[in-house]
Amino acid sequence: xxxxxxxxSKTENVASSTYYGLYALQHRGQASCGIVVNDDGxxxxxxxxxxxxxxFTHRILDGLGLGxxxxxxxxxxxxxxxxxxNAEPMLINHVKGRLAISHDGKIVNYDELRLDLELQxxxxxxxxxxxxxxxxxxxxxLVSSSIEEAVCKAMYKLVGGYALLIMSPQKLIAARDQNxxxxxxxxxxxxxxxxxxxxxxxxxxxxxxxxxxxxxxxxVVFSKDGVKSIREHCNQKPERxxxxxxxxxxxxxxxxNNCSVHLARKRAGMFLAKAHPVEADxxxxxxxxxxxxxxxxxxESGIPYGLGLIKNKYIGRTFIDPGQNVREDKxxxxxxxxxxxxxxxxxxxxxxxxxxxxxxTRVVKLLRDAGAKEIHIRSSxxxxxxxxxxxxDIGSKAExxxxxxxxxxxxxxxxxDSVGFLPVEDVFKLGASGTCKGYCAACFNGxxxxxxxxxxxxxxxxxxxxxxxxxxxx
Amino acid sequence: xxxxxxxxSKTENVASSTYYGLYALQHRGQASCGIVVNDDGxxxxxxxxxxxxxxFTHRILDGLGLGxxxxxxxxxxxxxxxxxxNAEPMLINHVKGRLAISHDGKIVNYDELRLDLELQxxxxxxxxxxxxxxxxxxxxxLVSSSIEEAVCKAMYKLVGGYALLIMSPQKLIAARDQNxxxxxxxxxxxxxxxxxxxxxxxxxxxxxxxxxxxxxxxxVVFSKDGVKSIREHCNQKPERxxxxxxxxxxxxxxxxNNCSVHLARKRAGMFLAKAHPVEADxxxxxxxxxxxxxxxxxxESGIPYGLGLIKNKYIGRTFIDPGQNVREDKxxxxxxxxxxxxxxxxxxxxxxxxxxxxxxTRVVKLLRDAGAKEIHIRSSxxxxxxxxxxxxDIGSKAExxxxxxxxxxxxxxxxxDSVGFLPVEDVFKLGASGTCKGYCAACFNGxxxxxxxxxxxxxxxxxxxxxxxxxxxx
Amino acid sequence: xxxxxxxxSKTENVASSTYYGLYALQHRGQASCGIVVNDDGxxxxxxxxxxxxxxFTHRILDGLGLGxxxxxxxxxxxxxxxxxxNAEPMLINHVKGRLAISHDGKIVNYDELRLDLELQxxxxxxxxxxxxxxxxxxxxxLVSSSIEEAVCKAMYKLVGGYALLIMSPQKLIAARDQNxxxxxxxxxxxxxxxxxxxxxxxxxxxxxxxxxxxxxxxxVVFSKDGVKSIREHCNQKPERxxxxxxxxxxxxxxxxNNCSVHLARKRAGMFLAKAHPVEADxxxxxxxxxxxxxxxxxxESGIPYGLGLIKNKYIGRTFIDPGQNVREDKxxxxxxxxxxxxxxxxxxxxxxxxxxxxxxTRVVKLLRDAGAKEIHIRSSxxxxxxxxxxxxDIGSKAExxxxxxxxxxxxxxxxxDSVGFLPVEDVFKLGASGTCKGYCAACFNGxxxxxxxxxxxxxxxxxxxxxxxxxxxx
Amino acid sequence: xxxxxxxxSKTENVASSTYYGLYALQHRGQASCGIVVNDDGxxxxxxxxxxxxxxFTHRILDGLGLGxxxxxxxxxxxxxxxxxxNAEPMLINHVKGRLAISHDGKIVNYDELRLDLELQxxxxxxxxxxxxxxxxxxxxxLVSSSIEEAVCKAMYKLVGGYALLIMSPQKLIAARDQNxxxxxxxxxxxxxxxxxxxxxxxxxxxxxxxxxxxxxxxxVVFSKDGVKSIREHCNQKPERxxxxxxxxxxxxxxxxNNCSVHLARKRAGMFLAKAHPVEADxxxxxxxxxxxxxxxxxxESGIPYGLGLIKNKYIGRTFIDPGQNVREDKxxxxxxxxxxxxxxxxxxxxxxxxxxxxxxTRVVKLLRDAGAKEIHIRSSxxxxxxxxxxxxDIGSKAExxxxxxxxxxxxxxxxxDSVGFLPVEDVFKLGASGTCKGYCAACFNGxxxxxxxxxxxxxxxxxxxxxxxxxxxx
Lengths: 474, 474, 474, 474
Hints:
By secondary structure, the first copy, chain A, is α+β, with helices and mostly antiparallel strands. The first copy, chain A, has helices at 14-24, 52-55, 58-63, 110-119, 129-142, 147-157, 201-205, 244-249, 261-275, 291-301, 330-334, 339-342, 358-369, 407-414, 442-445, and strands at residues 2-7, 32-39, 42-49, 69-75, 90-92, 99-107, 160-167, 172-176, 185-188, 194-197, 209-213, 219-223, 226-230, 241-242, 255-256, 259-260, 282-285, 309-311, 335-337, 346-351, 374-379, 418-421, 439-440, 464-465. In chain A, α4 packs across α5 (129-142), α5 (129-142) packs across α6 (147-157) and α9 (261-275) packs across α10 (291-301). The A-C interface holds A 49-50, 59, 468, 471-474 and C 49-50, 59, 468, 471-474.
């Protein structure tokens, strides 16, 4: 998931900038997206299931009109496929003023908050965290003198990892969770428009210069009066940025907490080369997020870097997965080896992470069929040993291959010659030295920055929304 | 708007029956529709903007699966065109059990209720009455021992004209407003399945036999334990059925409060013939809802009935209205005279109602061009003199032509030879004698069964939802 | 099928007029439609499967631009459902000038012409008659001095019943088959624009005044030089208008060969009343095309006319037919009786025709269930005894119920009290006296105006085109 | 454009294999696509504008059914945007047997052939080369004893560069132009099914092993009797493979004429490093087709390879190009620099080709803004100096920047420090030594293997087909 917002002026096309901003953040969520434009307090909104370029057409974008501010969101799919109904931003009509709310992240105490709210009379239409966030903020708003005060109070109740963007008729408010688990930054354009984004790559695209990351627990208010940072009375805790942002989630051209994601990944490859060296002829990366680390591994080890796997770039939402009755192999359809690169060679394959290990076996077979003599798998993430509570889709321990097998056993299972993981102590060295005060690597080392979720069984029978998974032509 | 529900068994396809039921009720709302299927407490739902046969495809209907109950709704368009977001039934996840709610009608004290709810912490996503209804019921549920008790208490707070269908995991609950302004009835199928519908015409279509109308203020609960009527402690007031249901809203093949709508319309034509006789050669009706009254006028007057106007039956949601730059006339495109019927004749044109009078002028011109010698307009409704608070789209006094002109002045304006309205005292004689205790004819005589709405200005800046009005091919 | 064309000037929106013209002709073909605009010799075209208001959106219509002429078509579905590929007008790029061709009708010697053309080197992409017509005209064009000369020569080869509209860069050419089996007429607008249409009802809609029917075998050329009729050297034979145009095909507000279709139908009802009188309480029509004859029957017999069956007007292309696993009945979903009209009554039901008799049984049951005491079916067409070669969908003798059973046997089969057909001699009296020189009633009396088709087995293995029958939402 | 075919058995799902095959060839054409399945001589087809995964859904693919053979095509867009009507394969119903034809390439003497055919009576519906090819083959078929004989004769008339796949009821026929300008190869699956494809990468995806390239002028017939190669009487000329297939068109994981495309590109980078060395800190490639050459340049020069530009991978057909009224820059939206890689560095940027030079200026600015100290552009193709007649979209001399400016002038225009092109003599060394007898590099050196086209002005006024460029949601 990702948030994007712009506080500008009516002479600029804020809807258009938000479109391109969300497009740059598409990798963080492909299930649904939405934009709300604020024209002197009147909100115009459009959201739907689908990619940014599928949902928004010229006509729809034009229909949003001009305005001083805009707010956007891309959302990833959840297992229950309520893609359309879960699309954000969430819109609220309220006596204290209407709001549009967009979030990235996960509320750990969702069940407790929701139960409490329901017992106070609130009703829920979705299972999206943003609905709980909206209710908490709106209730605080009734007893606060301003929307930012309400957000501040709400953040003491909302436990988890999240970035929030809230648009009121007059203000655009950015907030980052108490530990800064999820990234959020802002920039400025030449003419003084402010742009807020989950990742810095979206700032570049719309012509904004990076100003700074929002701090853990900080609230930043963009309004006619300029930029106001609120830290006092805020729930600020030690920084614990999700290290998986560096390893997998963010785009390599983004800079988070003053460190280039590309560089962090390249460093992971270098650490990996030191920790798990092996004699080989070529280093290849699993596209796309293994490529940076592969370059680092090659540079550190002196073994040449090569293009070993080609990824089909036309995969879309409506792609038909090969089923049981066809001979085609899902991995083969997406990845094809460059035989010339691996034939007769000892190959080091750098991948970003090994969670369940299901694709490793197939990729190894692809490379063997293409003539690779030896295959050494190197993971630029350590072993996953614990579930994530903050929005990363790392499953339960039962699903995590590293909970059950040693690297040697995995190598045998995959048909590879060896398997090596990034040492867990190295993940704390991926960022720029001296700038980030801390990381969350709970999925690797079990050290969670917050308490865990309590399952009160609320969502078990939530309403199922039937939706077409596939776009049909007429 | 219309509601439709079925309480059956899993061996029947309740989604399919609801589809055909809603299809029979399509004339009550063309903007959006939806179906919720209840499979042992798990709700499967689909709703969208569009006609029933546009929204539901085989695949979507099959995707709703089988279940013991289903609930549906067709909704008409409102001026702000939030068609998709206003689609019903509304779905609620709640600690006291999930609910699906479908309504037909209008809550007069919407603004007061909503303000009160917001001040208690509720948030609103739509400007649809059903959201206020849902909140009132859910809050009562927290302090009630059953959902039906909550509905009963809520109905003391909800002032207006409405029919409600509420589905809980175990029950299907039907309720009609305190005055029975809006129709609601139920029937039974051979194998004991219950079918609840805004109009009886939908019972026939799904093979159910009419049992009875729900009474004003009555709550009927359909569950495994059979049918239970709740009247005690209910807010029951004298019956005041909206008489416009007979004149325009309902389908002629429906029976409401024991009176056939067709017969009521035919009677209107007969009363009209007595009140405003004129020498003429042929009686024609304005299709479709003027045809029944025209037959009555012809029968009473002895003047032959003729087919004088043909209505194009292919008008769909996406039809392009002729704009300023084309020569085509909107009325001409939809209606074409049968010249043979009117040429050289003295024509009586029976229409269902004259609200603003805009189309009258054009139809008179069509008939004159086709050779009609004299044109006498007869309206099977009396003069509209007051706005409606209960869901009929009768505008403010400023828009009502009868507030400004006499029938003689109107005839001159329209280019007709005379104009005659049904006398207001006759509307009370349209139904079956002795069965209906009373009607609401407030739009004609100003005698409202409830207090009027108070405008607290809440919705003025409600969020605008951009939606495509038109279906595009790719 | 139907053709529509306009020869005007660039200051008028010819695409828009064609849209409304086709919309008025929609009843003649619901499978596909198309429009071609001619802008100084440059053709802009759009066509697709679907109704006129589904296929054409504002954007598509605007995209066709302005022009001096336009040509349109609505096409009915054929059993092989190649709806999109069969859409007309057909567009031809040719060294002698490009053409757009639109047709209504059927070529009897299609197989022989196509075989001959293929042996000369032509290739075929569809099984649509218009492709053979296009090839014949184009080949004649190579040896003719003008496009109208080519059309004239081609018409000696094309045996069948058809109306043709052909647009060249400079001219719009209308032609009607040698016997005038299919209707075609033209009108003029105030400012001198010519409008050509299969039926006159479409002239009214676009503001044109009827001028005259095209004669059998006549060619009329519309160009900058005005209107030129070509009859010399033309293949003109005695007029044999398809009488089924009066009974079923055309809209009641059209006038064909100087006779109102409504009046022809009303006359059919009157003849029927004389031929098959019966004592009864009410005359009802099967909507929509039985209504005119029912009024005629009522007028002649003196028995009151009533509204006995209501047809649901929201049936669209994507409507889901109830299948085997649901209890709903297809006839019930589309037609519902008005119980009040038929309960305890002796009912005369006037239908337009009885081909296979499948729906009769169901309608009789509907009326019996609604309480009808007696049901007398009267068909405003005679018994169908022969297949049609000219485009009416009358099947083989094996499918025609009248080839196998007497009216008495049918009454028993349907559960009706009696069945009566229009005497075949009366069909020749339906039109205006003295204006039409003759009719084709071959489906009733076997007297075909042309030779029949020879089956050379060419199409048996024609290419199947997969198309979605149903529009899916995303 | 690309062709793909499979000759198998009904037990395999040939439609599904063709879907995945076309998906692997998507980079050769994004405008439209189509599949025809041959089930014992009955053809089932579906084609439309759009990407493979947009056009084909589960339902459409299932609707094509099972069969012994299938044929597919992906087509690129042409300037006149008749995407839907130009979709292939082309289907032909013909007395000598139906055919489906799919092609990749361009017929140089299109105008002469078409004029000749039209004068013989043929009509044309598209401006797609495949329609001329179809007519030539079909006419030859009338005077040949077999379809393969007709193809052989037709190939003497068809001048140009092309790959053809023709499906008759019993056979699948592959043919490559006289000079082998366009690639075509086939492979075999374990169970004896044959797979024919424009590029070998699609063989891997469907589990087929590469057998061999089709020879220039060769015809290969796949039928129940196995594989038959026809070279006798064929129009075979010296091989002249389009060298741009190596530089840009093909996928790096394909092997053409025994040479890996990746390796050819890497070699181009190496030759470039030798020809245009420069002192620098990092070598980056312009994604995607500049990456292979950048690796080669880095390896040869010893300068480290880096990830300098990130390409947004979510670009789809419906992406909204920023227009005049927005500040976003098209290049910025698609490409974003990795600042860390280039900041303060002397950068060598390897691009695949410089045709018009429009994007170079923008990319240079992107890198400068990201802090690059020096920027040296290296093109892995030589200077474009001549138009291409064989299907590569290289425009007229007036558009080619290398016809007007020296590399030094270009460097100044782009804001780069230097510009270097691959020496034209090196392009002949890109392939594997000793296997390819010759290349066409006419766009670089003007040495065309065939005569050029004659413009007879036929298409100037071809019919415009209105199509929506953009997919709209409802």
